[in-house]
Model the fold of this input.
Amino acid sequence: MPQRKRRVSMADVARRAGVSSQTVSRVSNGHPGVVDATRRQVLDAMKELGYRPNSAARALKSGEFRTIGIILFTLSTTGNVRTLEAIATSAAEEGYAITLLPVAVPTQDEVRGAFTRLGELAVDAIIVIMEVHLLDAATVSLPPNIGVVVADSNAGDRYSVVDTDQAGGSREAVRHLLGLGHRTVWHLAGPADSFAAQRRADAWRATLEEAGREVPPPVRGDWSAESGYLAGLRLAGEPGCTAVFAANDQMALGLLRALHERGRAVPAEVSVVGFDDIPEAGSFIPPLTTVHQDFAEVGRRCVAGVLRQLRTDAVERGTTLVPTRLVVRGSSGPPPGA
Amino acid sequence: MPQRKRRVSMADVARRAGVSSQTVSRVSNGHPGVVDATRRQVLDAMKELGYRPNSAARALKSGEFRTIGIILFTLSTTGNVRTLEAIATSAAEEGYAITLLPVAVPTQDEVRGAFTRLGELAVDAIIVIMEVHLLDAATVSLPPNIGVVVADSNAGDRYSVVDTDQAGGSREAVRHLLGLGHRTVWHLAGPADSFAAQRRADAWRATLEEAGREVPPPVRGDWSAESGYLAGLRLAGEPGCTAVFAANDQMALGLLRALHERGRAVPAEVSVVGFDDIPEAGSFIPPLTTVHQDFAEVGRRCVAGVLRQLRTDAVERGTTLVPTRLVVRGSSGPPPGA
DNA sequence: CAATTGGATGTTTACGTAAACATATCAGGT
DNA sequence: ACCTGATATGTTTACGTAAACATCCAATTG
Done:
């Protein structure tokens, strides 16, 4: 196999420009104290030779990689993807690259493995987009002196957590429906092992209780549209059900289909409110009233958080909540006969 | 307690274990020729001190980073995300990490900037998920000796390209509709600057022409559900329109809403076929007949491609097509009166 | 005009790893 | 006992960069 050509190093540039490699380093890093003529010589030599800094050597010397590692379980949920995109954009603005560490199966072993690999990986900080119970066994293997921020979790007592204000958004959704005149609101909940789902359900229940309303039994799905459809078939059979708060938009989509199939008009007979405000929500039949999440802000705060910890060499704890906003569209209205 | 001192190095482990650092290196890399007792001593010392290999030093020495860089424009399209996820999974299996390089604005300047940064970045290979016309000005700044694979492009003459068989899938969709008895098939096309959209439109037209059918004027959207809705309002007014092939599922979603609002029953009056098979497609009203893309296979081939180029130090060209599969659901049926 | 100063540039060194090379040890064959 | 060759381990070195330190030179000053 042909030996691959060595890349152009500072020494090569230095030789070509007739200066020392240290001067090349200074030019490369924009340090002051290099006279213009020399700087130009060096820049010319760089261009002629096609010099590119070797980031491995730089990282070895400086001790930082200018990279943030992201551990997540899946890219198949809207929330994860949009958080990731926001993080990537925000990190790029700060001059940091993003290294992805997908965990195929959400078991503690897999997660621990990911953390271990991450310890050897070229990252200065870590952002975890994951439910916290999966982290529990993994903490020990976290390398010291590395910033960690967790999105989508309740681990504020142990980590710095940035999350959407799940409770506030849910409260808003339920109050919106009650305000329209519905006697109570049913809930199409997310999976039991999701903390986000749990918080949305808790806030739903609490809001109903505060208002002195009856709390119907929640129906549980797994975030997927298909599970929303199955749940919807059951809810369509509940005569007293005039309003449903779905824990995400995908399940709301399935719910709408079930109601449509069963001939229950939305919103004339049943109102539906979702959570997330995915881009397609406005194109559902009918367009979905839903709770908008500001993922961009979540991403920004995650990046700001890890970089702050990195720079101050401090470990932060506590939870930051990003506010939500109710987007009212066509799927919610007054109950029949109101 | 957290040592905020220097990280533990091989030398530290070597001292603790009473061996040379080279022996530690051998144990760390699983080389043979270390006797069991010694190996155990070293492993114990590693664990006691919490040793983690320094990837920067390793990369500097070995010349490889075991990382693949991914340039993409946005994570807001299903296709990109699912391709990315597949690539990440596949790369992880090969022991490679993924570094994300999002390009905020799809201008040539931005893309060139991304490539330049990538040249300084710690990556062994690059996968580009992007339309090729954005790459044109950027090629010069690509570092030598680096594998490149492009997904979603027509640049097979200059790069190694892996893509879904857009033409085959479109042909299958159109033939399915013709086979049901429709006289012709209308097309809800994607944006003009997308090569994928162009190929889907070309194949749609060619299939109609081969069958000797009339070719209605295509209606153009921008991939979004909203644009599909607007296009749908126009198509709903076309009396002869009994079948529509939408270039993606999101636009098909908007189309379904427009048809529903205008009282055109699907599939009794109008049949709709999409492209992508997003997870929600089965929950549309009615469930969407669509062309399934095998993103996992695209990802696998991308990774295999760059790694092969990396290992053989060769530059490959040409296009690899990943087959599609038509998924028939409820949105397509015979035309009225058939 | 010599001494001093400070900016520009060169030299040395260390970062942590692993290949290449060197040495030590020992079993088995004569 | 002596050599042979294999196996286990140690020593040296280089990877590319940038901080720390050293040197040089021109301009300013007493």
In short: The domain at 10-53 of chain A is CATH 1.10.260.40 (434 Repressor (Amino-terminal Domain)). Chain A touches chain B through 59 residues (CB under 8 Å).
